[in-house]
Design a protein that fits this description.
This protein has 102 residues and is mainly beta. It contains 1 helix and 7 strands. The strands form 2 sheets. Strands 1-2-7-6-3 form a 5-stranded antiparallel beta sheet. It is elongated and about 50 Å long. The model has no long low-confidence stretch (mean pLDDT 87).
Length: 102
């Protein structure tokens, strides 16, 4: 399910998933990864941020829409790249989530 986002500081995101390496007996475990790009003036990133592996807060959450309920994860991210001229910060994060069986 795709949702539209309107803002002046959000540049875009990619969300991917695959079966988790270790499955849970309580449901179906998946590894979810996201990459997100923000205006750098909203989520500052530089070489120090990258070297220290600082988790940036991001904005919003990945929320389950069908077949489950609640928040899957926040859209916080580890910055991996930035651009000073074009004013952007980008990065990602991975996490496991277990969907209930049945």
């Amino acid at each position: 399910v795709l949702r539209t986002a309107f803002s002046s500081h959000f540049e875009g995101a990619i969300i991917q998933w695959k079966p988790a390496a270790v499955q849970q007996s309580s449901g179906i475990a998946v590894e979810i990864s996201h990459r997100v790009t923000w205006r750098r003036s909203n989520f500052f990133c530089d070489d120090t941020t990258i070297d220290s592996s600082l988790l940036l807060s991001g904005e919003g959450s990945l929320v389950c829409q069908e077949g489950c309920s609640g928040t899957v994860a926040s859209m916080s991210f580890y910055c991996t790249d930035y651009g000073t001229t074009d004013n952007w910060s980008t990065g990602g994060r991975s996490y496991n989530y277990t969907f209930a069986s049945g």
